[in-house]
Design goal:
Length: 464
């Protein structure tokens, strides 16, 4: 299969025996070998495991099994457990741990559907990052321009996909780590409702904010993978018991009748962001604007909760191995350990109040549009940039538009918007009410059908 082949196309071809799962896997491994040196997406390549799994998929297809993800190569952010591989979570410290004894639940579910894991991917240390720069494994490079950032912390998940090495990756999103790289690398992503997909056997960052989800190059591919990963898991205390709510068959319902509004006020960036949002809203015919209540306070509260929970998780490592952290990550965690308990209590109270106010807005609208990032990808190593006309640090502020929605666990589709004449991508968020991933993806699909939302393999990486 070519690098441009997606999840749906690959699975259809393998199920029809037009190509074998072994062949799709060999092709993916060859692309990784050829291109990973340019983008630094993979930290571990599991070739032997992948080929063995591919042979099992081919046997299943020959036996008449219809597998929704048959022969689809995928890779995972290296905070997902892969049996026999050390779960780095982007850190130096975790490399001293023994290899994982079992796969993460979401890996198991994708492979049960016929997909084939080919490795683990670079990420920001312990997921505390928005840039994609890792002090231990090096920065991931944006395939659309190798001098620029991928965004983080799911840097390798975006780089591998945009470079066409695999058609599907898994990532985590605590404050925006699916949506920021999706925007900067021009990809579709899905942060499901908090409690929707299992987090079992993954390395956490902030338990009350962590989400897991897929990145892909089409809405259909997102939906197919998302459907395969659904299901209750009692080992994740955040999961909610809900029936399986497949959305692959609902994408073509269109968006007629959906009430869509654009978030205004806080959600403005540089001129290029306004241009991108104007193109998307014009395509959808959306004119309504809506104001979210006191978003800066929501983001501030999200910062405090992130710092405090992160510091608690890493307390022992900070005591015994502080010198082995990326200094930028270590210093933020140490600051979190010093936060007064009263601040965290107030942040949690505000979180509940903000959630209630935003949920009330979904009585008036079905989806809210907002930019994913305040700018296109900065250059690797760039420390500051203009945010709304003010020069501010890059690393904490690339997620300025994503944090308020992670904070309250809403489902969000990340959608890459193709603005003519621009090589570096930019994207928007489609935010829906809890458990309405289908609404977010239906809006994304409409933008895709109109040709405004596109996620091509980066130039110089696509097969001839």
């Amino acid at each position: 299969m070519k690098s441009t082949a997606g999840v749906a196309e690959t699975a259809r071809a393998v199920n029809a025996t037009e190509i074998s799962a072994r062949a799709t896997t060999i092709a993916a491994l060859a692309r990784i070998e050829a291109n990973n040196g340019r983008v630094n997406a993979f930290t571990d390549v599991t070739a032997s495991r992948a080929l063995a799994r591919a042979d099992a998929v081919d046997e299943g297809v020959k036996a008449g099994k219809a597998l929704p993800l048959a022969g689809v190569p995928f890779a995972v952010k290296n905070l997902f457990d892969l049996k026999g591989v050390v779960t780095r979570a982007g850190s130096k410290i975790n490399r001293d741990n023994p290899p994982a004894r079992a796969d993460a639940v979401l890996v198991e579910r994708l492979e049960a559907a016929g997909a084939i894991c080919v490795g683990a991917l670079n990420m920001g240390e312990y997921a505390y990052d928005f840039t994609g720069e890792n002090a231990h494994d090096g920065a991931a490079h944006n395939p659309h321009d190798l001098a620029h950032m991928t965004g983080g912390s799911s840097s390798g998940s975006a780089a591998a996909l945009a470079a066409g090495m695999v058609p599907l990756t898994l990532a985590s999103d605590t404050n925006g780590s699916i949506r920021v790289p999706s925007s900067l690398c021009g990809l579709f992503g899905l942060k499901p409702t908090y409690g929707r997909l299992s987090r079992s056997r993954t390395f956490p960052f902030v338990h009350s904010l962590d989400h897991l989800g897929p990145l892909a190059r089409s809405v259909e591919d997102l939906a197919l993978s998302y459907d395969a990963m659904q299901g209750f898991d009692g080992d994740d205390p955040a999961m909610v018991k809900r029936p399986l709510e497949a959305i692959s068959g609902r994408l073509e319902r269109g968006f007629a009748g959906l009430r869509i509004a654009v978030a205004d006020g806080y959600f403005s960036g540089e001129a290029e962001v306004g241009e991108m949002m104007a193109l998307a809203t014009k395509t959808l015919g959306v004119e309504r604007r809506i104001s979210l209540p006191d978003v800066p306070s929501a983001r501030a509260a999200a910062f405090l909760i992130t710092m405090a929970e992160g510091a608690s998780l890493h307390a022992e490592r900070l005591r015994t191995r502080a010198g082995d952290f990326d200094p930028d990550v270590r210093d933020r965690l140490l600051a979190g350990a010093l936060l007064p308990a009263g601040w965290i209590e107030r942040a949690q109270k505000y979180r509940r109040a903000f959630q209630e106010q935003v949920l009330a807005l979904f009585g008036e609208v079905d989806a809210i549009l907002a930019p994913s990032t305040p700018m296109r990808a900065p250059k690797i190593g760039q420390k500051t940039a203009l945010f709304g006309g003010v020069e501010m640090p890059v690393r904490p502020n690339l997620g300025i538009f994503t944090q308020p929605f992670s904070f309250i666990g809403l489902p969000v589709a990340a959608v890459p918007i193709a603005v003519p004449g621009q090589r570096l991508p930019l994207g928007l968020q489609v935010i829906a009410a809890p458990w309405r991933e289908d609404v977010a993806l239906r809006v994304a699909r409409q933008l895709e059908k109109a040709g405004v939302a596109q996620a091509p393999v980066a130039r110089g990486f696509a097969d001839a």
